[in-house]
Amino acid sequence: MGGGWSQLVQDRGIPYQKGSGANIEIHCPLCGPEDRSMHMGLHLESSRWSCWRNDQHRGINPVRLIEALLTVTREQAAVLSRSYFGRGIVPVKSSPDTPVRSLEGPRAEFHRFTGGQLHERQFGAYLAHRGYDLNFITQRYDLRWAITGEYRYRVIIPIIADGRWRTYTARTIGDTTPRYLTCKESEAGCRPTDFLFDQDNLLGGELLEIVEGAFDAMKVKQCLIPGVDSTALSGKVLSNEQLSLIARKALQYRLVRITLDKAEFATSIGLVNRLSYYAPNVVAGVPPEKDYGSMDVAALKEHIQKGLT
Question: Is the pTM of this model over 0.70?
Fold first, then answer.
């Protein structure tokens, strides 16, 4: 059938008006009676839709809007979406200017944790003070340490995809600011936000915890709860690349929970709203303390297990 939004509104007798540019406008079905004008814009050359009254009412997947617009089931909306747009779910594409490259390898001044080097002790003491099992996290995540160069006295946290170092962040173990430094884009060719932390090990199960920083994700995994994995966004913003990755990974988990820092619960809700177009099993969580990384492992394990019941 094809024809996109223009054909759909004509076939279904939905009132519309010409909008600016390549758009038509309809009443927003998600706003309901509160939309007394036509604030929902439908893009005539793609499947995009967005409401000018409510920034949360937007997306590129037509299924959710068709479901609300025509008062049909999700399955029926998916069938109609395939008829008018050629597919039931429109995937998010990575930005074309984002190169997918790997580093030549860790810098020469990045040292492995072996337990036998004198300077390594202060890094081990820092991690132990924060409640981490040194052997577990350094081996699982291939952490490194440096005492020379631009990243001196920092723990090096690699972002690994398809078995290769793509980029990394470096966390100071002292009072140096900024606390985190990111690998220069000119060196890596890509950013931490182009990937999910520990993405090669997100293989499916009961729960995928999506947190803010890598240390939060490490603390979750250190709980050793069967079927529970964790990844980090490397910040509070969800990039298009990460959205696409999460949409695919979500299919492999019973539940996906976004749990940013406690003070960022509203941000977590916003990310859930954005992701729910692609992953119906995503919810927002809130840590009982500042963040997962600051919690005792036993207390964190109890918190996560309660959420699974």
Answer: no
Give me the amino acid identity at 91: P
pLDDT tens readout for residues 41-87: 999 888 888 888 887 788 877 888 998 899 888 777 877 888 888 75
DSSP 165-209: EEEEEEEESSS-SSSEEE--HHHHSS-GGGS-TTGGG---EEEEE
Query: Residue 39 has which token pair?
Result: 């604030």
- Return the residue matching tokens 């994995």: 229
Question: How much is the CA Rg of the chain, to the nearest whole Å?
Answer: 23
* Strands ordered across the beta sheet of 58-59: 17-18, 23-26, 40-43, 49-51, 58-59
- Residue 236 near residue 260, CB atoms below 8 Å: yes
Element (H, E) at 70: helix 62-70
Report helix, strand or coil for 44: coil
274: CB partners within 8 A, 6+ apart: 56, 59, 238, 243
Cis bond before residue 280 (omega within 30° of 0): no
Distance CA 218, CA 208 (A): 13
C-alpha 275/C-alpha 283 separation (Å) is 9
Determine the Cα angle at 191 with ends 266 and 218, to 5°: 60
